[in-house]
Amino acid sequence: MGNKISKTSKKSTPLPSTNAQEDSDFRYIGGRRYHNVESLKYPLPNDDEELDRLHLQHFLLRYVWQRNFGAPVKHILNQDGTKALDVGCGAGSWIFEMASDYPNTQFTGLDISPIQPTEIKPKNVNFIKANLLNGLPFENDTFDYIFQRFLFSSIPKDSWPDVINELTRVLKPGGYLELVEINHIPFQLGPASIQLSIAVEKLHQLRDLDTQIPYKLRSYFEQQGNLENITEEKNRITYGPETGKLGQAGIENAMLVVSHLKTYLLEEMKMTSEEFDNNRDVIAKELREFDSYHDLRCVYARKKEIIEH
Ligand SMILES: C[S@@+](CC[C@H](N)C(=O)[O-])C[C@H]1O[C@@H](n2cnc3c(N)ncnc32)[C@H](O)[C@@H]1O
């Protein structure tokens, strides 16, 4: 990743108390901290600023959905010895809430970036560092419930079926798989927002990522063959004038993503840093004025008891 970016600057601030084993877990570009896996497309940083954004985004999503999960797993999560996995767990916002709501379940958070706290965490939570694209480091039929949210900017277009196979492999028969994805290009846009969206789309195409993934999840689940009771739910994060504080928080989140992608977008948009920042303020206003929204899909399914090979 980041072939175009040759200048690296390393922050001298100490690493936070996380499960990072070594400094080589990270790379630093333009004062921001990133994962250090050359082959990985994921473009967002993993520093404190981004972790704060992920927390904000989590609260936004919980409000939009009015829940933390959609699959019918409440009774499973209340049983002793249940095992749940959060793939690409990020800052751990979802997992910490779930671990507190369901103390009988043992939660595992997996992420390429070892940025999650190791000491101050509930005892029913553990984190591991792994690259989902290399396969999951678990035996077949390990988890009762698997959750994965917003991995669209990491999984290459053609790898989605393999990823869903892998998630299904480590799911117990009778267990549930749940994926939540966003179409990161909003709808109902003003002129500056359209220009930005074209640049963002190009960035993702160059990285071989699939921006239409929310609409393909259901059919990938169906093609997998060992998933049943497949359910798709639709939702939106809305930004229009009627949306009050929620809309403002959504716009703040969307603009933070834009800022965090700035390194990559500057060249594509042929703007100076100052022009980019001014343009971002225009976009924030447009999202409100044009009643823009981001489209969401949540798809969940049960793994068949009798597996077809
Ligand atoms: C947009 S964040 C979403 C975080 C979390 N799921 C949430 O909804 O708050 C994507 C996360 O996936 C992680 N990630 C990206 N590619 C990955 C990979 N190949 N294997 C494991 N984790 C990955 C990133 O480090 C990041 O924490």
Automatic annotation (TrEMBL):
Recorded GO MF terms: methyltransferase activity
Residue segments, region Disordered: 1-23
Composition bias type Low complexity, residue spans: 1-18
SUPFAM superfamilies with a match to the protein in the record: S-adenosyl-L-methionine-dependent methyltransferases (SSF53335)
Boundaries of every Methyltransferase domain copy: 85-175
Protein's name according to its UniProt entry: Methyltransferase domain-containing protein
